[in-house]
Amino acid sequence: MDSRYTQIKQLPLFQGVSQDKILALIEKLPFHFLKFRSGERIVDLQDACTHIQFIVSGKVRLVTPWQNLRVTLEQILSAPNMLAPDFLFGREIHYPFIAYAEGTCGIVQLRKSDYIQVINSDKIFLFNILNHLSMNSQRATTSILSITRGTIAERLAMCVQALTSSTSQEIKLKFKQRDLCALLGVTRSTLIRTLDKLSAQGILTYSANEINILDSRSLKSIIHA
Question: Do both 95 and 179 map to the same domain?
Fold first, then answer.
């Protein structure tokens, strides 16, 4: 029980909750503690989001494709973190990515109906999830405004900001150049000039079919400059 409490108390949505409250929830509700081997698939693209899932140990690689384009964004999430809690509620409740274990990792999951009990048990849980959902909603609004009026660098930053979090690591875009140009609404020569500039600033490196984001914070700050 102690090890389970230690794993759960570190999770973002359980911050600020007393030990007694967390232990009572562990005893009452069916938290599932799962282990995945390196490379094992945790969720598939468009799987229904029926559980809230937490990374409690190790790392998870997320691969997000753009529909009808040969462009994907990859990122690493480390414990403690969550897998797409934004898709637990609302009209769209299907995962927008494929999630793989990056090395051995541990996942704790709880059914949506049981998580609703958690939210109702203490206002702190409600505030935590509302804060998370609000921050993501505001981030999406900023991103949409940027792509409608932004430079090529801002449009690239928007794509990264919309699909990653402040805790994402090893962010990569993999693409066919024609499709990436179509996504950003640019010519190949304009794209290369922008990537050269961002590379000179130490924000990213790139090859013919891949962009590696070295400094996501600096890239995202372009939107707000």
Answer: no
Instruction: Give the H/E segment covering residue 213.
Output: strand 210-213
Distance CA 50, CA 145 (A): 31
Q: Which residue has the tokens 């609004």?
A: 141
Number of domains in the chain: 2
Q: Structure tokens of 132?
A: 């998370």
**CB 54 within 8 Å of CB 11:** yes
The 8-class DSSP code of residue 94 comes to: B
The tens digit of pLDDT for each residue in 149-186 reads: 578 999 999 889 889 988 999 999 999 999 999 999 89
* 128 falls within a domain: no
Containing domain of residue 110, as a range? 2-63+77-122
Q: What is the DSSP letter of 167?
A: T
Q: Are residues 58 and 164 in the same domain?
A: no
Pick from 154-158, 174-178, 197-201, 207-211: least confident: 154-158
